[in-house]
Each structure stands twice: as C-alpha cells, then as structure tokens.
C-alpha cells in the first residue's frame, strides 16, 4: 500500500448523477489506481471547468486539438506524498508503477513502457475513429449539458451538436466499419485463451483497451451487439477488469 497519510487526489470528469466515470482516459487511471491498491479519492470536475482546474493547479495540457490549440482534459492526479501532479493517463500509470513498485500489482512488465506507449497511441487512434457513435450516449450532467455540448462543438469545429450525432444508414455503416477494424485488432489476442492480451496475466495494455470498452459500455447503444463480436472477446475483457472498476 502507499505510505502517504493522504490519499492521491484523482481528478475525473463528472457525469450526471449519480457521478461515475465514463470517459476512456479517466477509466484507464481508475483501473490503474485500483490495480496498484494505492489510497485515493475522486474529485469530480464538471466538463466546462476542466481547463480552469488544470490551470489552477499549474498542470499544462498534454494534447492538441486538430487546429493545434491546447486540449485541456482529464485525468489528473496529485500525490501529496511527493507534491507531484501528473496530467496524462499514460504518465500516471508510469508514475504509479515507479513510485509504488511494491503496492498492488505491476502495470508494466520489465522494459515494456516503450511498447506500451506505442500500443496506447494505436488503440486511442482506433477507437477515436469511431467515437462519434457514442455522442448521444454521453451521460452529461443536466445542469451543465449545454455548456458541455458547446465545448465539444468547439473542439471539433462543427456548426452544432447535431453534426456530432450519426443516425440511420450512415450509423449502420459506421458500426460495420468499427466491427471490421475490431476484428483485425482482435487478431492480437489469438495466441492465448485468456481474457487478457497475455492470457491470464493482466498488464497496462489491457487497461488501455478496457478504458475504451468501459466508455462504450456506458455510451454506445450497440453495446450488446459489440459484446457478441469476435466470439465475445471484448465482453470477456471488460468483465475480467471489473474487479478493478471500483469508484472511490
């Protein structure tokens, strides 16, 4: 267990009530914190307040929007034991493994951080190509929903929220395209029968995929269909990660 008398502060994007994690990168961090068995507490941040929250704590953005402007997002942690802020899900996982090597389970096998970083970029790109399918399922807080939708409109440089909603034949085709890409991705798992990429042994690679699956479980109307894809591969992975999905 972590030795700090103060729990790590985990800044997550607030959903509508009851508050819960729904975005993929905060899910990656929640899984990682639970796997590492470090004491932490969640601080919920309304989506329109994310930029101000990061700036208030002096945590610079680590991502860019398509127009090359700064993208302020979460997760972010503050570890009072070291006075450290970390504002990127991958770097949070690296920090936790290095700062608390004896707590919980290891996230990264020896000498694998580099390949995990490449894998993270690949998985993020894959799911991001189809994330428009989730727009209507995002559990916005009703009190800030309009401001949150306006933020998405600004990020994606569209004229209105309706441009981020896909329906009818276009949606059916997008779902089929997603399924085809996931079928190709599933080939990485063909070397074992376990739920994880390395069979029965979980690593941060599974958390990377699991973070996106957890989002889809909340936001994708076709989730039940996805659970049947590729022999139930993605449902089994999601269920295997449930033991580390606690909200704290």
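-> sequence recovered:
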């Amino acid at each position: 267990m972590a030795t700090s008398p103060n729990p790590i502060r985990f800044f997550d994007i607030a959903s509508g009530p009851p508050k819960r994690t729904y975005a993929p990168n905060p899910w990656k961090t929640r899984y990682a914190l639970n796997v590492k068995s470090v004491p932490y507490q969640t601080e919920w941040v309304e989506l329109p307040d994310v930029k101000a929250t990061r700036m208030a704590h002096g945590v610079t953005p680590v991502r860019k929007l398509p127009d090359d402007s700064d993208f302020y997002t979460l997760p972010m942690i503050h570890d009072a034991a070291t006075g450290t802020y970390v504002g990127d899900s991958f770097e949070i996982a690296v920090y936790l493994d290095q700062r608390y090597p004896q707590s919980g389970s290891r996230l990264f096998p020896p000498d694998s951080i580099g390949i995990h970083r490449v894998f993270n970029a690949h998985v993020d790109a894959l799911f991001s190509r189809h994330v428009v399918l989730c727009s209507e399922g995002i559990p916005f807080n009703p009190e800030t929903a309009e401001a949150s939708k306006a933020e998405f409109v600004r990020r994606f440089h569209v004229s209105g929220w309706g441009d981020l909603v896909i329906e009818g034949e276009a949606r059916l085709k997008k779902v089929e395209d997603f399924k085809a890409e996931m079928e190709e991705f599933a080939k990485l798992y063909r070397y074992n029968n376990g739920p994880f990429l390395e069979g029965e042994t979980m690593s941060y690679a599974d958390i990377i995929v699991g973070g996106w699956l957890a989002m889809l479980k909340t936001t994708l109307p076709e989730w039940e269909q996805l659970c049947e894809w590729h022999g139930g591969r993605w449902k089994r992975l999601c269920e295997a990660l449930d033991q580390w999905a606690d909200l704290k």
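The chain has a mean pLDDT of 95.
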